[in-house]
Amino acid sequence: MTRYSALALLRAGLTGQRHWPRAWRDPSPRPNYEVIVIGGGGHGLATAYYLAKVHGIRNVAVLERGWIGGGNTGRNTTIVRSNYRLPALHNLFDFALGLWEGMSDELNYNVMFSPRGALFLGHSDADMTALAQRGDALRCDGIDAELMTANQLRELVPLLDMSPAARFPIHGGLMQPRGGTARHDAVAWGYARAADRLGVDIIQNCEVTGFTVAGGRVTGVETTRGAIGAGRVGICVAGNSGPVAALAGIRLPIEAQTLQAFVTEPVKPMIDTVIMSQSLHCYISQSDKGGIVLGGDPDQFPSYAQRGLPPRIAQAAAEAIALVPALSRLRMVRCWAGTTDMSFDGSPIISALPVDGLYLNGGWCYGGFKATPGSGYTYAHLLATGAAHPLAAPFALDRFATGATIDETGVGFMPQFH
After folding, report:
1. Which residues lie closer than 8 Å to 196 by C-beta, 6 or more apart?
2. Which domain covers residue 310, as residue numbers?
3. Which of 19, 139, 185, 406 is the most exposed place for a label (fewest CB within 10 A)?
4. Domain containing residue 156: CATH number
């Protein structure tokens, strides 16, 4: 680990950090790589890191059309949890949560993982029954889940509107104590630095414009910086999965939608857990800078715009204020939107594609950030061995043809073909 003295830190601050070394290299593309990962977000960088660290494959390039972490990795609400109802999902996400817990030590970089708890609210008897069922399913697989009464929530989150006359009455909730938040840009930088030190080339400003195919097998990619050969190519571009796969003539069961969020002015600590409502699709947390981060439903129509709409902001704000009335006193300072890759059963696709040597990691809807390390680990296994990791086996593309879909109720809006 590189250490800096107080004098060195002071000099860097006074000179615009001109003397600090680069955290990772800025290489030119080589003619050929064993594996190319398209997409320099958290999932792509994690994949490259685990290819090098776990499988010893270091002749790897990550190709990013802009800058690393500039897509959905930098456009989310940083929530980390594994409390999904269905075993295929909660087993994968809990594996990821285990990696989150040791990530700062693993990468030798502080990703600011904060296990402050992830709380789902129940607003009716039906909600509480569903939360109890979810909690039972989680505990059966050894995953933490605590069903909480209204009185327990009053003590845990005093600012919640627990009155009988509340717009959305709160009957109780389901808490995952190990859940929480992490710093999204630190995750990208940590994986980038660690992958670079293992020999991975991280190539920014390099957009993939096509694939080279010979004998039905991918042999490389065409980019804005020239052709690059590869033994295997992995697509890992979130909301742009459809357009990139289309370059190889593949149509995916994925629809891109805009999902937006916003943050308020910073205030002193007032919410020390992640608050979510599955019925409302509203989520609230407080960032390390003090701002209250809010989000809600996706826009529910196809879009690649990366900008939000005022009605969605108004809806999310109204729901958040109804749950925590004190938020009405705060000013919103910034909003943003990501392009989510909405799969048709609300679950990811980690799979080989119909073109030999081409693979996909996508369809995460709006659960991608929390899956980052588990996604990268299992995708690296697929790219390295050609076989699905046991945790990722249920997420093959052919499930849509065989009818083995994974429909997690409430995980997100299920798109239709347009």
Report:
1. 23, 24, 25, 202
2. 114-178+256-338
3. 19
4. 3.30.9.10
